[in-house]
Amino acid sequence: KLHPDKNSSPGVREALQRLKHSAYELLGDPDKRRIYDAYAPAAEATSSGRKEETDTRRERRGKTFEEEVWSEFESFVGSRQAKKAPKKGADIVIDLGLSFLEAVNGGKRNLRVKRKAKCTSCSGSGCQPSTSAVRCFVCSGRGSVHQRIGIEVVVLPCKKCQGKGSTIPYPCKDCKGTTLVDSESTESIDIPPGVHDGQTLRMRGKGSMSESGGPAGDLMVKLKVEVDEEFRRDEFDVHSDVSVSISTAALGGRIKVKTVCGVVEVEVPSGSADGDRLRIPNKGISKVTATTTAQHRGYHIAHLRLLVPRSLTEAQRRLFEQLSSLETSV
């Protein structure tokens, strides 16, 4: 009925051309389209009073051709707007301190978590008993309003209902209409073997609840690993200093080395010097390969430190003197 071939009203063709140009300009300009798409088109004005006044005036005088075509265009574009998904609840970040061995071996820890939870008094409705939310009279329940300035349409969230489409005339006394209250509970977290300082473990759905009915946020546990007096970490390898006597270093022999997996015996080659390293396989940090869940460990690397006696017995002194004389004669 609006096509100029079927409508002989004066100025129809010119009005249609102007609206066609406006439509192409809106749809073809990325910036203008981005502004339009940022919000779902909603009510015809920013307040119910202005909307009622506009509708009443239009009913008395009837819509112009240009207004009718523009209304059809808005209806077409608006119908293509995707409905916004409910907003996710807030994430919670907690710091957790671990000893070096806890980080290496993993385990379980219990955490006290403060979060926003669904109000039990109103069952998450935000309303007092025997009451309910009502449709927002400003946006007619659509959550947003728009204004037309010339050929431009500016769409904004409804300030009255904060974009929800409904208002609560009698808010719950506990949650004040937010549907959420402060809560505290204990969460058990599994710490996998081999975690490192600064690593964050994510527990999905263990954060705060959403006011809009979306999924709960996540609990983010940031790990703080303490420095150990004996062990040092280098990716999946563990380093430590091991004291060895001069005679063992010279002649060779077996010594005990403390690792994160327990105490092991290793062979010291003859002629070892201070600072030499002994690599002990599969006694370091656990690691999981991409193709298997079996645990593989890095190396424990023992740094030899020659133990020089500070006081000698008479027998030891004679032996060192004999060794000294032999070294001098060589």
Descriptive account of the structure:
- With 330 residues, the protein is an alpha+beta fold.
- The protein is 25% helix and 31% strand.
- The strands form 7 sheets. Strands 10-11-17-14 form a 4-stranded mixed sheet.
- α1 crosses α2 and α1 packs parallel to α4.
Q: Report the radius of gyration as a whole number of Å.
A: 38 Å
Question: Regions with pLDDT < 50 over 5+ consecutive residues?
Answer: 39-61, 73-83
Shape: elongated
Q: Structural class of the secondary elements?
A: alpha+beta
The count of DSSP E runs of length 2 or more, i.e. the number of strands, is 17
Contiguous helical run count: 7
Strand line-up of the largest beta sheet = 10-11-17-14
> What portion of residues is helical?
10-25%
Span between N and C termini?
118 Å
The chain-level mean pLDDT equals 78
Strand percentage: 25-35%
